[in-house]
């Protein structure tokens, strides 16, 4: 059963005094107004998806407020920060530091806000590239980032359709993840951008899940 996304709920690994309002106030001065509107949209969409999927609405909304806390750092800053946290970077990450804004944000959230809730930190870390074996909370936040209202409809509509096209009435997170990965790959290819190997691995992982005969 999903829990209420009320402003103050007790969770192991999250300081009791830390509320959704506190997360909002933490995020706002770190980004531009345009980025903050996106963050606000991701928080709301994460709560909506969590409700559809029977997941924890408070954690989904909280992760939405925190997920882009380092989005506007420069590439070199992100690479330097990632290395300072002990991350082993490949060449793609060293040359495209923006791909690291999720993992770096998770470390910053842990250190600045004293949040140690691992599923929440993973959801922040994995919201851009995803991960093989990611939790349902991570899927919710990844999808919320894709489905936030400013995204183009030709991108979001197929993902929403996959999410809601489930006879059981429960949101199909895995099917939506596959569509989101496919569309993201198509966009990267068409725009001649570098593709992180994890993007392909995550797409193949969800393809295998969705096409299992006994699913």
Notable characteristics:
mainly alpha; disordered N terminus
Helices and strands, with pairings:
Elements: H1 20-27, H2 33-53, H3 57-66, H4 75-84, H5 91-95, H6 101-113, H7 118-125, H8 136-147, H9 153-164, H10 173-190, H11 197-210
Helix pairs in contact: 1-3, 2-3, 2-8, 3-7, 3-8, 6-7, 7-8, 8-10, 9-10, 10-11
Protein model, in words:
The protein has 11 helices and no strands. The protein is globular and about 45 Å long. The protein is mostly helical. The chain has helices at 20-27, 33-53, 57-66, 75-84, 91-95, 101-113, 118-125, 136-147, 153-164, 173-190, 197-210. Helix 2 packs antiparallel against helix 3 (57-66) and helix 8 (136-147) crosses helix 10. The chain starts with 19 loop residues before the first helix and ends in a 5-residue tail after the last helix. The protein has a single domain (20-210), classed as Orthogonal Bundle (Hypothetical protein af1432), CATH 1.10.3210.
